[in-house]
Design goal:
Low-confidence stretches: none
Distance between the termini: 25 Å
Strand content: 15-25%
Strand order of the largest sheet: 1-3-6-7-2-8-10-9
Order of helices and strands: EEHEEEEEHEEHHEHHHH
Shape: globular
Mean pLDDT: 89
Structural class: alpha/beta
Radius of gyration: 19 Å
Helix content: 25-40%
């Protein structure tokens, strides 16, 4: 259980079988695609704030400095790197959402992971989904792929996800997955591939891909189609830049050849039904 001074609750909410979705700015949020996705979910479903995570124990403020700004009333205030937890209701029959966004902390990752576990327990979340984005050898001319994985073999098989295979240095998300699995709370990872030659934000194509895969798995409306036009405009800008560089154009064609054989995913209805069956079976057990 985290210190009450770390996790500060400001409201409560009656939620219907919620899913907890987490995205943290940092190394595993290339082009800010994941945190942008959670922000769009908050606006789409009119999320209300539930709690915030005090940054004091977790950040070196010389590395992650707070900022000073003036609000609409002209009052000067300091903006700290607070972790924010919000709740969103979805249409009847769909699961509600608990949405967590912030910045990957510098210190005390086990404590931070325990704080997120406390949020999940307090809100009754039945599944945690982490969103991330990694630079990769993906060409911008193709839909940006999303790698989904789950350590639980049952949920991985039902949702057509892979099993975690990475070995090496990890981030807060890796620590969080380990803690949730140890506590028996199922967790799924969705990570979109961002072209390494255009890693900066914004990247509406990457955000759209994450939201589309999240909707495919859960059946919850994500509004990803609203990003169709921004994604086309983003791709056109990159096309124009690549066309002016013969060497880069040849490199992109090589990347295209590597990804042209794509795996066909099951339908969204099938995956959402499998998720419901999996979580129902867990409740009955």
């Amino acid at each position: 259980m985290s210190d009450a001074r770390v996790l500060r609750w400001s409201a409560s909410a009656e939620l219907d079988r919620p899913l907890l979705v987490v995205a943290l700015e940092g190394m595993f949020d290339a082009a800010e695609a994941a945190t942008t996705a959670v922000g769009r979910l908050c606006r789409l479903h009119h999320a209300t704030e539930l709690a915030e995570i005090d940054p004091e124990p977790f950040f070196n403020f010389q590395s992650q400095r707070p900022t000073i700004a003036f609000d609409e009333g002209g009052v000067r205030a300091i903006e700290w790197p607070v972790g924010r937890c919000s709740a969103a209701s979805t249409p009847p029959g769909r699961r509600d959402l608990v949405l967590v966004t912030g910045i990957e902390p510098h210190m005390r990752w086990r404590t931070y992971a325990g704080t997120l576990l406390e949020v999940a327990r307090a809100t009754g979340a039945e599944l945690v989904i982490t969103l991330g984005a990694m630079v990769s050898m993906a060409p911008h001319t193709r839909p940006l792929g999303v790698v989904g994985s789950a350590a639980d073999p049952d949920i991985a098989d039902r949702l057509g996800l892979g099993r975690p295979s990475y070995q090496g240095p990890t981030g807060l998300v890796g620590v969080l997955h380990d803690r949730l699995q140890a506590e028996g709370l199922p967790v799924v990872s969705l990570r979109v591939s961002v072209p390494h030659y255009v890693p900066g934000p914004p990247n509406p194509e990457a955000t759209r891909s994450l939201l589309a895969r999240l909707e495919l798995i859960t059946g919850i409306r994500t509004g990803h189609a609203e990003l169709d036009r921004p994604a086309r405009e983003w791709r056109q800008r990159i096309d124009d830049a690549v066309a002016s560089d013969d060497e880069l154009s040849a490199y992109v064609r090589q990347l295209e050849e590597q990804v042209d054989e794509l795996e066909v995913l099951p339908s969204g209805d099938d995956l959402a039904a499998e998720l419901e069956a999996y979580l129902r079976d867990r409740r009955e057990d």
